[in-house]
Amino acid sequence: MKGNTTADYTNSVTVNAEGATTGESVDSTDTTEVLVDPQPSVSIDKRDANSEDLDRDIGDDTQSILSGDTAVFKIRVTNNGYENLTNIKVIDELAPNCSVNIELPVTSME
Predict the structure, then answer these.
(1) φ and ψ of 99, to 5 deg
(2) pTM, whole model, 2 decimals?
(3) In this structure, are strands 100-104 and 85-90 parallel, antiparallel, or unpaired?
(4) Distance between CA atoms of 80 and 41, rounded to whole angstroms?
(5) Which helix H or strand E contains 90, and what residues bound it?
(6) How far is Cα of residue 83 from the mean position of the Cα atoms in its chain?
(7) Rounded mean pLDDT of 83-99?
(8) Would you state the pLDDT for residue 110?
(9) In terms of pLDDT, which residue wins out, 23 or 105?
(10) With bands split at pLDDT 50, 70 and 90, how would you rate the model's confidence at 106?
(11) Is 108 helix (H, G, I), strand (E, B) or coil?
């Protein structure tokens, strides 16, 4: 295991053995690539969350309402990079009370 990795590299492992009866030597090697992605990344998704949606297709990107009714949205911000994010500002020009500052830790990347 190599700690404090800051650049891409190829890791190689080799096994050598000898047959107990024949004395014949055998070996095998395998490699794996280690890729360092230092770029932070974030995504935002705004969806219809209106249980009164006239088109009854809740969760899509469109909602139909009657004049004077309230539009309801669900906003999801995802940290899809490889480092914690700070000073994130979610801004909705039409819903200023919805605007917030948040921090997002990295989620498990498997």
Answers:
(1) -70, 130
(2) 0.54
(3) antiparallel
(4) 5
(5) strand 85-90
(6) 10
(7) 81
(8) 42
(9) 23
(10) low
(11) coil
Closest CA to 78 of 48, 43, 51, 39: 43
Question: How far is 36 from 91, CA to CA, in rounded Å?
Answer: 31
Query: In the Cβ-directed half-sphere of 1, how many Cα atoms lie within 13 Å?
Result: 2
For 37, the token pair is: 């992605």
Q: How far apart are CA 105 and CA 99, in angstroms?
A: 19
DSSP string, 44-86: EEEEE--TT-TT--TTSS-----TTPPP-EEEEEEE-SSS-EE
| pLDDT tens-digit readout, 52-63 | 777 777 777 778
Task: Determine if residue 4 is left, alpha or beta; phi over 0 gives left, psi from -120 to 50 gives alpha, anything else beta.
Answer: left
Amino acid making up residue 86? T
